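The instructor's notes for this session suggest beginning with a concrete chain rather than abstract definitions. Hand out the sequence below and ask the class to guess, before any prediction is shown, which regions might be ordered.
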Amino acid sequence: MEVLDSRRTVEVLNGRRSREVLDSRRTMEVLDDRRSREVLDDWRSREELDDRRSREVLDGRRSREVLDGRRSGEKELDGGTGSDAPLGFHYRFDGEGRLVRWDTREPFLFRFRRGDGSRRREEEQEALGCYITQHVYRLLEEQCGLRRVALPPPGRAPVFLSQGALASSRPLLVLVQDRGTVRSGQWSWQGIARDGVGAGSQIPYVQRALQERWGVALLNPNEGGASPEEHVRHAWDGLLAGAAAGQVAVVTHGYGGLAFVDLLSRRPQELQRRVCAVAFIDSAHNLWHQPLGGAARDWLKAHSRKWVLSSKPANRSVGSLKADCPQLSAGTLDRHSAPASCMDAVFRYVTKALRSKPPPFGIITRSKSRPPGGGARPQHANANQI
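After discussion, reveal the predicted structure:
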């Protein structure tokens, strides 16, 4: 029995040693496996780091390519003359005067809604208006040869005049736009953004007048803090009344027509003597609510035409019992595109009026005469300097 117990003891001891050896082997295997995984993870980390660095280098190259392409696109769209667009503004004018995205050349798409309180949309709309204004100003000065001229006090807003507009005896064309945010040289900034410079700006009118060798004056009734009526009056008293032109024609849009009628009510004799044609386009004036004498009403009926929004073809008669002058169709129901739609008809009317009414002999401008009552002579800009 003692021998048997001894054998069992030896077997137990051997079994324990075998288990210890086995556990040791398993521990070493686990340790080796852990070390292998750590090495593998380290390799993977290095590969991911290298891949990340490669992507960063590639993204950097792509960013430089995009930036170079954007700069090239901006230069191409702006004709190589630089851009007036604010930082972050994604649209530019192409060679045809249309507002498009600089990268995709897609046309501008209106996303502004009336009453939208989004601050971002307000900022985008403000940036759009500023860009359009600066672009049109640059075209007026660089392509049309007009000069920005400050009105004498109390006027504040600058106006644009063609070379020699006030010194020449040739006819003078005066353009007055609607009220709101439109600046000098624009009929409608919405029309410019949607349909291009040729549709929404006054530049086609300017070019047509310059081809006829007329002088051109672009008023700016929505800048400077004065009301449109005050601005038109200051522009007439400070600049236009002293012009050497024997014939003056006026084209107005929207509220600009009301501002002109207000001037007519305050300077009736002077305007009846100098102005030979008035073209009202979608005008806001109303003789039933504006003080105008009988003689001025008769003169306006004989020397003006009104183009109204209508589905009829352009220049077709549009009758009205309350019409203060002959009414014609503007050829569109869209007020933003009305000036462009009826431009040919407007110039035919103005040209005919200029030919049928020769300039009066011996024009005496207000700068050379005292007003009734012996008051002080109004101060005007020197016509020989403009």
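Then share the key points. The chain is about 45% helix and 10% strand. The first strand starts at residue 91 and ends at 93.
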